[in-house]
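Changelog-adjacent note: as of this version, every example in the card shows the full chain rather than a window. The one below runs 162 residues end to end.
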Amino acid sequence: MEINTSELCDMYADRIDVVEPIFTSYGGAISYAGEVTTIKCFEDRGLVDKVLATNGIGKVLLIDGGGSLRRALIDTDNVQMAVDNGWEGIICYGAVRDVDLLEEFSIGIHAISAIPVAAESREIGDLDIAVNFAGVTFLPEDLVYADGTGIVLSPEPLDVEI
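Full-length structure tokens:
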């Protein structure tokens, strides 16, 4: 899938929100798009693992980890689950780990930083709620489009193949 967020901004400037450029790309897929599924959690990856174990075809998991850089919410174990279940991408307002291995997976992954310490897994948090970070409010079922240049959000599908 080829997504070009620069072109999307040129074509749909009045219909999209542009996410502030605070993320680094860690996954093997340069561009990705899909319907948003949201999780709000803090230093706990239990819900992340639970959701990534479900069918993710055509979906992007958006994690509001409160911007914490003390514990990683994403690692090779849950990324493997995501790939196995067809997820298009993961956007994490938090940290990842195993960065040297993440680029080997054919999935888009954006996060704000990396740390080697894993988060706990107690399934504490909220699923499918509105979350706000990086200057944008993400709603479940919004559509996100991402590439190496940036991330854009739309409440309705844009005219691109996803």
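Structural remarks: Residues 5-154 form a domain with the Glucose Oxidase; domain 1 fold (CATH 3.50.30.40).
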